[in-house]
Amino acid sequence: MTVALRPRAAAPWALPGAVVLVVAGTVLSMKVGARPLSWAELSDGLLHFSGAPSDFVVRHVRLPRTLCGLLAGACLGLAGTVAQGITRNPLAGPDTLGVNAGAAAAMIAVMTAGIGSLAGHVWFGFLGGAVAALTVYAIGGSGRDGATPVKLALAGAAVSALLTAVTSAFVLLDRDLFARYRYWIIGSLARAELPTVGQALPFAVAGIVLAVLLVRRLDAVALGEDASRSLGARPGPTRAAGLVAVVVLAGTATALAGPVVFVGLVAPHAARALVGTAHRWVLPLSALLAAGLVLIADVAGRVVIAPEEIHIGVTAALLGGPVFLHLVRTRKVAAL
User: Could you give the CA distance from residue 25 to residue 187 in angstroms, rounded to a whole number?
Assistant: First the structure.
């Protein structure tokens, strides 16, 4: 399929609007919760920590949660954009390439073996996602045609189905394991900590840099196999590098918030609806929209049934679902 890229921004206000969304989400995330904070309490907690209860809430609860939401959302938006770009599949995402299924299988393996804590488990999930994605690429890249979009999608579906079946078998046989796995698989920012942000930041930066370096090549790949080769962008190496970026970005987001799968799907579609298909516009806008969506979804989860909370994986789907359905009904989603 050959498509024409729209190189200019169709909505000049899109990026500034997305920045406003992220700022609004950040402010709400810091102020709203089981214990609402005044502006004075928020300022004192950030700038003049004295050990007061409100200071503790700001520094040790709201700030880590907000930073995790921002970083996880940006990584999800970029991962979804790159995944859709390298596969030329509008429904692609980290789950399509087996990343989430691999992460879940690795998590179950270490939980079953009783290794480490939840904070350590997510890094095994990162490794599992990488192994699964490499397996998908190895299978999809076999044969004379190499790693074509169709073969990658089929390989990803097969590997994901196999890993999901294995994971489900282990979970259903152990009630305690099911309880721990259920909390993780839905996605949540409730256990966010500043050390986790520090550990994840280098991975996020590496993934973001790699995604930015692929901007021109992703545009070329979108034009089709023959056209991309004529432009000097080899599809095979581009897809391999893109797969690495997806694994790093999705693994980082998983380490921070669990496998929140819907955000990485809807953010790139919303970005393309606003600014066209050129990746130099779509990548930053997807990152901003996804970060804003994650923060807004997290805040909504805190207040809907307060003082109880709804996990972010649920609220993100409830908020993003209508947007995605609107895009499907009003636009040609297949046009990447």
Answer: 18
Model pLDDT for residues 259-280, shown as the tens digit of each residue: 787 888 889 988 988 888 888 8
Is the bond into 64 cis (omega within 30 degrees of 0)? no
pLDDT grade for 58, boundaries at 50, 70 and 90: confident
Whole-number pLDDT of residue 299: 92
Sign of CA dihedral 273, 277, 280, 286: positive
Helices 118-140, 175-186: crossing angle, 10 deg rounding: 70
Q: What are the pLDDT digits (tens) for 69-110?
A: 999 999 999 999 998 888 877 777 777 778 878 888 887 888
Most distant pair of Cα atoms in the chain: their distance: 66
Q: What is the pTM of this model?
A: 0.85
User: At residue 15, does pLDDT exceed 50?
Assistant: yes
**Residue 155: how many CA atoms within 13 Å on its side-chain side?**
22
* Helix (H), strand (E), coil (C) string for the chain: CCCCCCCCCCCCCHHHHHHHHHHHHHHHHHHCCCCCCCHHHHHHHHHCCCCCHHHHHHHHHHHHHHHHHHHHHHHHHHHHHHHHHHHCCCCCCCCCCCHHHHHHHHHHHHHHHCCCCHHHHHHHHHHHHHHHHHHHHHHHCCCCCCCCHHHHHHHHHHHHHHHHHHHHHHHHCCHHHHHHHHHHHHCCCCCCCHHHHHHHHHHHHHHHHHHHHCHHHHHHHHCCHHHHHHCCCCHHHHHHHHHHHHHHHHHHHHHHHCCCCCHHHHHHHHHHHHHCCCHHHHHHHHHHHHHHHHHHHHHHHHHCCCCCCCCHHHHHHHHHHHHHHHHHHHCCCCCC
CA-closest candidate to residue 313, choices 271, 245, 251, 254? 254
CA–CA distance, 131 with 135 (Å, rounded to integer): 6
Domains of the chain: 94-259 (1.10.3470.10), 262-336 (no CATH)
End-to-end CA distance of the chain: 10
